[in-house]
Amino acid sequence: MKKTIKNKQEYFLAMAAMEPLLAKGFDKLSPEEEKKLDQLTDAVEEWETKEYPLPVNPDFVAILEHLMQTRGYNQTELSHELDISKSQLSGILGRSKYPNVDLLVNLHQRFRIDGNILLQSLSPR
Q: Residue 52's closest CA among 86, 5, 90?
């Protein structure tokens, strides 16, 4: 059954329901938990796409800034979520450092950002 998020409260409830499943680890989820996580993830992604659309052809920094704005993260919180140092995130946001493959994979898995968009965001303009 497809879950649809109708408002911000339902969005936060869905995010809260996802946290223990993500913390458990993908390889430790039961088939029922996997199905629940997939449904929640799809619903969250659909709602975020509608409520917080990414800019067309964003650059990588714009994607990170969008995450910070829509999720209410500061640099410290986002660096923690992405499992990178604050100085690395600061360098990427300041355009003096470049993201590595691990960061791109983490963004894709954690925030469900399409890998093609991430790669295109790094292309020279």
A: 5
Of 60, 58, 66, residue with least CA distance to 91: 60
Per-residue pLDDT of the chain (125 residues; tens, 9 = 90+): 678 999 999 999 999 999 999 898 888 999 999 999 999 999 998 988 888 776 667 889 999 999 999 889 999 999 999 999 999 999 999 999 999 999 999 999 999 888 888 998 998 76
Cα angle 23, 27, 29 (rounded to 5 degrees) comes to 65
To which residue do tokens 């979520």 refer? Answer: 81
Of 99, 95, 70, 66, nearest to 84 (Cα)?
Answer: 99
Q: DSSP readout, 49-72? A: HHHSPPPSS--HHHHHHHHHHHHT
- The residues, any chain, with a CB within 8 Å of residue 89's CB and separated by 6 or more, are 64, 75, 78, 79, 82
